[in-house]
Amino acid sequence: MAYRFDIIAYRVGDLAEMLIIILMWSAIYDGNTKIGNYTLPEMLTYLIIGNLVAVLLRNFLYEVVAKDIKDGLLSAHLLKPISYFRYILVREIGRIAMVTMISGATQLVVTVFFIDQIIINNDLMVISVIILMVILAFVIEMLISYLSGLITFWQDEVNGLNFIILRLRKFFAGGYFPLNLLPPWFLTTSFLLPFAYSFFVPAQIYLGRLSIQAGLKGILVEMVWIVLLYIFIKITWHFGIKKYEGVGI
Amino acid sequence: MKKHARVWLQLTNCAFMSYTTNRLDTFSYFIGKTVRFGFFALMIFSIFRFTDNISGYGKYEALLFFLTFNLIDSLSQALFRGVYVFKPDVQRGQLDYLLPKPVNTLFYILSRLTDMLDIIFSLLLIVLTMLVIQRLPITWGGVEMGWYTVLIILGLLIIIGIHILTVAITIRTEESDSIIWLYRRGLYLGSFPPEIFNSTGQFLFTYILPIFVIVAFPVKALLGLLDWQNILAALGLTILWLGGAILFWKSSLKKYSSASS
């Protein structure tokens, strides 16, 4: 809480961004009852629920890992009797916990503001599947972020690469607009990638446009991705640590 | 003036060299910008598959808002990227080394990190904007195009004012990152026609926070939808923001205590 102004300003920014998107879609719907098979309440619900999930999944692990490798700080961690991977994951969760809670609360404020315009789904089974999906999506996001940071073993600066990954991630997650506004083959491709489960799929399950069975299939896809990413990380670490020189100590 | 131009060229040269030392990273950033721009453009095209207007504006008019917003955003980032690296100067007392330089400190802070990627991206945006203008009933070289250019320049001057305010606030609070990102997110409002907001919202973002003056006014002038009263208001707001920001900067300098040097 040392930089309170920063925290408040970023939350105001989050709120403003959300409100702009809602206003834009409300204007688009002026004179149209449906766009791409979505009514206005469905679209607003999609955006609000999707953004709430996206905010909960945010992390900056790649920056931490990249800095540790670039500045040679990794050397100190290698000497400790604890896995760097586990240490850094747990540390990042602690580091972002406060910011995530505040961001989540901000998104809830938006939800409450538009409560009479969004669709409420209190089916316990649906909520449980979404929660499980979000937890697995969080793990996937952390693993992808960690993997991006490990690229610093070969490339000093990874901010540019992460910039691309973040943009692609948001697009394939349906963060710009619902993926089913695009051609069907695109949607099929998105379901094979892990990103759709961090925004689009939870929102679709909440809206009842995807069944619980589809949600469970999605959870299975997420688990496969977690295993794959873990293997990629192990391989990358194996080769990367041989390149590591501890420059910057 | 000549002195400042020489300094700017030298600083730009240094910035260019720093970009070329990390070619892959620089290239990745450029691709990332292009990808993000492409997705937003795709969103607009996708929306217009299902509707024929947004608040009364057709597809190419909506694209014009979007492209103009991107052009102004890109130009301001290209020219004034230096403000993003100002916070450490205050925290570590490095501003002490900037103040005695025989060049305007504000000029140096704002222009020391010219972003070549955004300059290249801006050129691309200018070409795309011209292609979109060709699809609209607008006369090349007409009065509307003149006003479009003038209002973009006024918009950039307001943005300079906002950047100066950010720098001044950083001196007082040492917290600047959030302010500049607040401005960037606020500017995003201008990528859509202002009519998506109600009259209160339009008033707020025109006369209090002049986001629509920066982005929407040039487009409306180009489309022949802006009256002379609003053009005068744009000029007045530019003078107010720029002048007010410079005064606030001068007052903030008096608060600078160089605590870390």
Secondary structure layout plus pairing:
The complex is a heterodimer of chains A (249) and B (261).
Chain A: H1 4-28, E1 34-35, E2 38-39, H2 40-56, H3 61-70, H4 74-78, H5 84-113, H6 124-150, H7 159-172, H8 184-192, H9 200-207, H10 212-243
Antiparallel strand pairs in A: 1-2
Chain B: H1 2-21, H2 23-47, H3 59-80, H4 87-91, H5 95-98, H6 105-111, H7 116-134, H8 143-173, H9 177-187, H10 199-208, H11 211-214, H12 216-222, H13 228-253
Written account of the structure:
With 249 residues, chain A is an all-alpha fold. Chain A has one domain. Helices cover 71% and strands 2% of the residues of chain A. Chain A is built from ten helices and two strands. Chain A has a two-stranded antiparallel sheet. In chain A, strand 1 and strand 2 form a beta hairpin. Chain A is globular and about 60 Å long. The two termini of chain A are 29 Å apart. In chain A, 37% of the residues are buried. Chain B has 261 residues and is mostly helical. Chain B has one domain. Chain B contains 13 helices and no strands. In chain B, helix 2 packs antiparallel against helix 3, helix 3 packs antiparallel against helix 7 and helix 8 runs parallel beside helix 13. The longest helix of chain B is centred in the middle third of the chain and has 31 residues. Chain B is globular and about 60 Å long. The two termini of chain B are 31 Å apart. Classes of the chains: A mainly alpha (249), B mainly alpha (261). At the A-B interface, helix 1, strand 1 and helix 7 of A face helix 2 and helix 9 of B.
